[in-house]
Amino acid sequence: MSKFVSVVAGALVTTVLVAGCSSPDEGADARAQSAIDVSVTLDEENGTIVLPYDRFIPDRVDASLLQTAQQVVATLCAREQGVGFMTGRFVEIPTYRSEPFYGPWTLAQAERYGFVSPFLTDADLRANGIVPEDYGSPSLLNNAEVAAVNEKLTDEDRAVVEECYRSPERAEFTVKGGGGPWDDELRQAEEPILAGETLTEPLDELYACYRERGLEPDTARPGLVVGADPGRIDEEQVALAVQTVECKQETDFTRRVADALAAAQAEVLLDYADEVVAQGEELQRALDAAQRYVAAHPEAFEPPA
After folding, report:
1. Quick one: DSSP state of residue 54?
2. Residue 82 sits in which domain range?
3. What is the chain's mean pLDDT, rounded?
4. How many domains does the chain have?
């Protein structure tokens, strides 16, 4: 039985036993443990890998929503004081949920980005100088309009805005995003796996596949090959990236490593089940509140009257 399966089975057995004869505190612990999903989700269509702890912390889209809500608070506060501040509108961009895993792990990522971070939009790629100015689709955000409005602010206006960013109302849209003792324990559990120190077989098989294709593994960057450039997209980089993804698929590399990480996370999370579940609930409350608040104030995303 694998370590991953052992952890899951252990959690289920604990829940059954506690339900039979337990103190109220133990029963609460069991309920919290049962609320922790220790499985892995590999979403190839969106390029997203969801490990157990990911379900309790904000991703890039969540963080963007929370930040937008905080900016709306500051915008409305400033306008009440006669300062024509404006904030950028929130757009849920699925690309921001895509992520690398030892480099690209889906063919779609490899074919579009090569070895460049797959969570960058076309506008992000242009802004970072990775592609020409005429590359891809226009931005869905209104950043240029926002900049044109806010650059007219005086120093006194900016002082008002800064003070508005300290508004207590922003607290409703602020989450800790960690900070408990489990964070350090998670890092300690994950680092040897991510570095290829304790889970050597998947990397060995991946590297063997690379060599069969005439590629040289870059041992300083686990999972990558010599010549991989995270700052360039061209035909050569795309071809190289596609070969690495094909090897990951042939060896089931992504699934095996993700399962190992999930098992390592589960051992930690189940020890802090109450706290971690509470953190996830706090995050969800903040996201729900931010969604409502942003939807209720479309005027913050328009130039001041």
Report:
1. G
2. 35-301
3. 89
4. 1
